[in-house]
Design a protein that fits this description.
The protein folds into two domains: 11-164, Up-down Bundle (Four Helix Bundle (Hemerythrin (Met), subunit A)); 182-271, 2-Layer Sandwich (Nonspecific Lipid-transfer Protein, Chain A), CATH 3.30.1050.10. The chain has twelve helices and seven strands. The protein has helices at 11-30, 34-37, 48-62, 83-95, 100-119, 123-127, 139-161, 167-170, 173-184, 186-193, 241-248, 263-271; strands spanning 129-132, 135-138, 201-207, 212-218, 222-225, 235-240, 258-261.
Length: 277
């Protein structure tokens, strides 16, 4: 019997988003020069090449490949904050000597293998409990986190080489799933990190191609809700959807943000919007 507390997600929808993200990365990376692969991205110490090495490493580990040993204590690096970060850095260092062409070949090979594994999962396996980067939940939720991670890293690469996504690309299934995952974190962001007081009703209105409204009530703790039951929000935060993802992911500082209602609460939430460790 499936635990009712676990997040149940449509397998075909989530996999369509993940596979579309991998396809988008393949197309983007295949058009880059070797010089562009060496460009820095908005992640401390990493280049485009390093981001791809991280993605290859993660999917390789999910296929059962052990994390390679590093030539130094990666946990001592300033930008490594936890065990997950240390594992990522081991893969980055291990693959740093590979040519862009060879690393792209690895990416294509490992994602092809992962597609087959994921497509063959039964419904029970998809909904089974597992440990995810956001705590215990279903395996489907774990894969939605993978969509979020891969999509965010595509944006990192695009930032590094100056090739922003088009509106059509931002309207794809991966972006919607990534925002679903980010939206799920906003209860904690608003109630705990942002310190919105008891009784707050906070609406985060995203504009542009990623337009949506995320609503959070604070009743003991912050909780994402579909609506406020006919009541008006006590604070409104209005910003571009793509900018929201970059701020919440710790990649950029807030740009243009509009506030309505309790501006102090709204500003404090924006200051603590970054929830990615």
């Amino acid at each position: 019997m499936t635990d009712p507390a676990l997040t149940r997600l449509d397998k075909s929808e989530v996999l369509a988003g993940l596979f579309a993200c991998w396809d988008g990365l393949d197309k983007l990376l295949g058009g880059l020069t070797d010089q562009q692969w060496s460009q820095p991205v908005p992640l401390p110490g990493w280049s485009v090449h390093d981001v791809v090495a991280h993605l290859v490493g993660t999917e390789s580990m999910l296929l059962g490949t052990p994390t390679p040993q590093s030539d130094l204590d990666v946990s001592a690096l300033e930008h490594v904050r936890n065990e997950i970060g240390a594992n990522n850095e081991c893969w980055v260092r291990h693959l740093r000597g590979e040519s862009p062409a060879d690393l792209l070949g690895r990416f294509r090979s490992v994602t092809e293998q992962r597609r087959a594994v994921l497509a063959a999962l039964s419904g029970d396996d998809w909904n089974a409990p597992t440990m995810t980067p956001v705590g215990p939940d279903s395996y489907g939720r774990f894969i939605r986190v993978r969509v979020f991670d891969c999509w965010m890293h595509e944006l990192d690469i695009r930032d590094g080489v100056g090739l922003p996504a088009s509106d059509a690309e931002l309207a794809g299934p991966a972006a919607a799933l990534a925002l679903d995952e980010m939206s799920a974190a906003m209860g904690r962001v608003v109630g705990k990190l942002g310190g919105a007081p008891q009784g707050s009703r906070v609406a985060i209105e995203l504009t542009g191609p990623l337009a949506r409204t995320i609503r959070v009530t604070v009743d003991g703790r912050g909780r994402v809700v579909d609506d406020f039951g006919g009541e008006a929000p006590t604070a409104v935060i209005r910003m571009d959807g793509l900018a929201f993802t970059r701020v919440a992911g710790g990649r950029a500082a807030p740009g243009a943000v509009d506030f309505d209602g309790d501006r102090a609460v709204g500003a404090r939430i924006v200051e603590h919007l970054n929830f990615v460790i």
